């Protein structure tokens, strides 16, 4: 049995508990089927990490490994692989139903893996996959926004939580598609970050949306992407959405939403969960491979920029606890990445 380093947990504990994330030695896996075995060089940290790790009674007999943002090098391929070969540099967000990527080597289905942007380091690339897939699917699959900028010339999108991980890439993708981007941000540093990435305006998400939009000259917006507290913003969103507009959220609710508020506008509400395709092994899983490759091309053409804002090294429990702690404040800007075992 070959052993590898990993960071994981047995108990679900508050992040200030030193046992919330542990340095571990576990068995190195082997590739089969359409799996790649990837030598992990960098990992990104996302809210899903701390949501999975959040305190609960359950105890894991075998360690649970988190981490759903990886950049690395293909070490080995399964016999049914068609898309990659050993030595390829890759980036991906992985599969919620399997072990995460906070380990020296990681198994992942090749259909949800992309070729790493050539112009980025592993750390810069690891900041992108989960948020890129989420933003891309929300915009172009769930809300069916056209990829033709000419069709979006007079259309506006409001991105709630614009300076966070998903918002940072969503701003860039929406701008690339020709939309006018308005972001929500409440602090000078998050306002500056949002505008740097391409938001034309920002409004404060702690205040009513419609009066602020009207001050900017907008009666309503055609699209809203909600990346923060769906319940809290629901009435503001239904007030601000244009007739026949579309709202997409990635944040679960604490209770039912009053969908009747959208009825007379014939407006659409839709969810985006980037793990859906891998979780249910949908027939179109390979779309995530395609979109990651497309975005890698946009990065290498200098149209999309990495959203990395903080890097820690090496990959260990101490640094991953620090990254979780930062995310749990709700004030992080861009993405935090941990590099190198």
From TrEMBL:
Main location: cytoplasm
Compartments it resides in: Cytoplasm
InterPro entries: ADH-like_C, ADH-like_N, ADH_Zn_typ-1, ER, GroES-like_sf, NAD(P)-bd_dom_sf, Quin_OxRdtase/zeta-crystal_CS, Zinc-ADH_QOR/CCCR
DNA-binding among keywords: no
The organism's place on the tree of life at top rank: Bacteria
Key words of the record: Acetylation, Cytoplasm, Metal-binding, NADP, Oxidoreductase, RNA-binding, Zinc
Gene3D superfamilies for this protein: Medium-chain alcohol dehydrogenases, catalytic domain, NAD(P)-binding Rossmann-like Domain
Domain Enoyl reductase (ER): 19-338
Entry's family note: Belongs to the zinc-containing alcohol dehydrogenase family. Quinone oxidoreductase subfamily.
Matches recorded under NCBIfam families: adh_fam_1 (TIGR02817)
Subunit architecture: Homotetramer.
Protein name per its UniProtKB record: Zinc-type alcohol dehydrogenase-like protein
Species: Halalkalibacter alkalisediminis
């Amino acid at each position: 049995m070959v052993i590898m380093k990993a960071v994981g947990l047995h108990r679900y504990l508050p992040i200030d508990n030193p046992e919330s994330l542990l340095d571990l030695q576990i068995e190195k896996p082997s590739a089969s089927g359409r799996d790649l075995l990837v030598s992990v060089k960098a990992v990104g940290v996302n809210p899903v990490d701390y949501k999975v790790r959040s305190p609960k009674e359950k105890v894991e007999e075998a360690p649970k490994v988190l981490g759903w943002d990886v950049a690395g090098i293909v070490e080995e391929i399964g016999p049914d692989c068609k898309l990659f070969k050993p030595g390829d540099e890759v980036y991906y967000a992985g599969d919620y139903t399997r072990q995460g990527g906070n380990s020296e080597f990681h198994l992942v289905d090749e259909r949800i893996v992309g070729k790493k942007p050539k112009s980025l380091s592993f750390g810069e690339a690891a900041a992108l996959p989960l948020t890129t897939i989420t933003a891309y699917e929300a915009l172009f699959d769930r809300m069916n926004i056209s990829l033709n900028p000419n069709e979006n010339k007079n259309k506006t999108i409001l991105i709630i939580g614009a300076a966070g991980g998903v918002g940072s890439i969503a701003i860039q993708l929406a701008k690339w598609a020709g939309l006018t981007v308005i972001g929500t941000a409440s602090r000078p540093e998050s306002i500056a970050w949002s505008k740097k990435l391409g938001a034309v305006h920002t409004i404060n998400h702690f205040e009513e949306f419609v009066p602020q939009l009207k001050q900017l000259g907008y009666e309503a917006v055609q699209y809203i992407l909600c990346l923060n507290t769906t319940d809290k913003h629901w009435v503001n969103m239904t007030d601000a959405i244009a007739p026949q507009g579309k709202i997409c959220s990635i944040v679960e609710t604490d209770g039912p939403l009053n969908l009747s508020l959208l009825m007379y506008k014939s407006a659409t509400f839709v969810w985006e969960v980037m793990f859906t395709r891998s979780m249910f092994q949908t027939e179109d899983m390979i779309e995530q491979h395609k979109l990651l490759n497309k975005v890698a091309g946009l990065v290498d053409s200098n149209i999309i920029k990495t959203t990395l804002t903080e890097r820690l090294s090496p990959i260990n429990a101490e640094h991953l606890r620090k990254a979780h702690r930062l995310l749990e404040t709700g004030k992080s800007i861009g993405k935090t990445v941990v590099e190198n075992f």
